[in-house]
Amino acid sequence: MSKAGFAIFTWALVTGMAMAESSLTTWQAIGMSLLVYAGSAQLAALPLMAGDFPFWTIFLTAAVVNLRFVIFSAGLQPLFKDRTLWKRSILGYLNGDLTFALLMSRYPQYRAEPSQLPFFLGMSLTNWTIWQTGSLVGIFLAGVVPDAWGLGFAGTLALIAILLPMLDGLSMRLAAITALVVALAANDLPYKLSIVLAVLAAIAVGIASDRLIRQRKRVS
C-alpha cells in the first residue's frame, strides 16, 4: 500500500501542477481537485477548458474518460445496496481504481459482512487524503517551478512514481544508482550518449549483482 500511496501522490502532484499551469485560477484548481477527484478526467478536460469549448463537450469528454466507474458502481452495488442514496453517493465519490480492485479481491462473494464498509472507507479515505495532498502541493508548487521545466518536469515525476516501486531488490537498486552516476558523469557527451552509457552500465551492474547474490545463496 505504501508503494501505491507514493504513486497516487506523484500522479496527484502532476495533475495539480497541470491545473495550476492551465487557465484556471488557484481557487478554481482547488475546487476542481476537491469536486472532480479524477486525475484522468481532469487532465482530459483542461485543454478543452483552455480552448473555450462548450460545457457539454467538456462534460461528455470527462464522462467518457470515466466510463469505467459505471462498471465499478455496478460491482459495488450488491455490497452497499442497503445504504441510503446520499450514503451511496458519497461512497461512489470516494471510490477509485485501486480501492475497487482491493475491495473486490477481499470480498469476491456478494454477501453482507460487517467489515466491508470499514474496509472500503479506510482505503478510500486514505487514498482521497493522499490525492488531495499531492494535488494541492502541485497547485502551489507550480508557481515556484521554472517555466523552462514545463511538462518535462511533470513527466519526470510520473516516471519516478512508476520506477521507485520497482526498486524492491538489491540488484535493481544498484542498477538504478549506477545509471544515475553514469548519466551525471557523462552528461556533457553529445547526442545524448550519456543515456546510452547509463543504460548499458545499469544492465551490466544489475546482471553482475544478481548473479553474485545467487551464488552466495547457493553457497550458504
Describe this structure in words.
Helix content is 77%, strand content 0%. The chain folds into two domains: 2-157, no CATH class; 167-219. The protein has 220 residues and is mainly alpha-helical. Helix 1 (2-20) crosses helix 8. The model has no long low-confidence stretch (mean pLDDT 82).
Task: Write a concise keyword list for the protein shown above.
0% strand, 2 domains, mainly alpha, 77% helix, 220 residues, 11 helices, flat
Sequence-ordered SSE layout with sheet pairings:
Blueprint: H1 2-20, H2 26-36, H3 39-50, H4 55-65, H5 68-80, H6 85-94, H7 97-106, H8 116-141, H9 150-163, H10 170-185, H11 193-219
Helix pairs in contact: 1-3, 1-8, 1-9, 2-8, 3-4, 10-11
Task: Briefly characterize the structure.
The chain is mainly alpha-helical and 220 residues long. The protein has eleven helices and no strands.
